[in-house]
Fold:
Amino acid sequence: MPFVDGPQGDAAGKVVRPPMLSVEGLKTHFPVRKGVLSRVTGYVYAVDGVSFSIRKGETLGLVGESGCGKSTVGKTILKLIEPTEGRMRVEGHDITDLGPREMRPFRRTMQIIFQDPYSSLNPRMSAGSIVGQPFVIHERTAGRSWEERVAELFERVGLRADQMRSYPHEFSGGQRQRIGIARALALNTKLIIGDEPVSALDVSIQAQVINLLMDLQEERGLSYLFISHDLAVVEHISHRVAVMYLGKLAELADKREIYLNPLHPYTEALLSAVPVPDPAASKRKRIVLEGDVPSPIAPPAGCRFHTRCPYVEPRCRIEEPAWREVRPRHWVACHLR
Ligand code: SF4
Structure:
């Protein structure tokens, strides 16, 4: 079936080539069990009906506070967690119901980079063996030794080939993340999910890693889902940005559009907290959200943001706002827009 790009269709309704990734109505709920019989007493609605797509060579930034479900979206797409509902398609192929064996070819094309490179790298393996592992598992070295391929990757991500023999603890945080990137690039990678990939790094190192990711994207036509709690970080790397709140998308638009014309009160509040070079000249008013994010076990009725929204109206407490394209390529879920 041909795919229409955009969360629910291209603005002009045109049929276009399949996006790299398309997610429709994705839900991931976790059962809450209690008692000696482990009876299911409720569900954590971690992801609760999320739709978006990522084109080839595009970066979609996925932003939201911690616990909003953004990491679960990433892990569900990679099928590290099974979805409860919805469809996921990679280059037009529906992967939702595929088992481990059928997923193998897709696993070669989709990789993840984690926030904490140290805990995701086996401390007992040399950096070269970590990066070379995918070649050995999938037996793909294009007629060359895996060491040669790994040396090439090390150099491409800004490490020296002789560092292949070193162990993770011998590298700095930024270098460890470069090892994670090299590992993610080892096979025929087309889509990389970065789960807070620079959040644990110093600001100066963050910029270097982001620049490396952008260069690699240009060279290899990679698509990225870049997950972060930090709108300032996402701004630099993303083509489009999706804002997530309590398991649902609040807003999705091109980067420039979302930063200049945020339409959802939650996006406005997140943006108002982003530091600007000249705060006195900035027209942006700081919006401080009251209260904490409600529990995803019992999300509020109506609009999920209504318990913290400065513009809440009576109907927001009852009626869930529809996910609508209110301007070309600009999607939002709010009764006021
Ligand atoms: Fe705020 Fe209502 Fe819009 Fe929700 S629907 S964001 S509560 S104004």
About this structure: The chain has a mean pLDDT of 88. The pocket of iron/sulfur cluster is lined by residues 264-265, 303, 305-306, 309, 311-313, 316, 321, 334-336 (CB under 6 Å). The two ends are 33 Å apart (CA to CA).
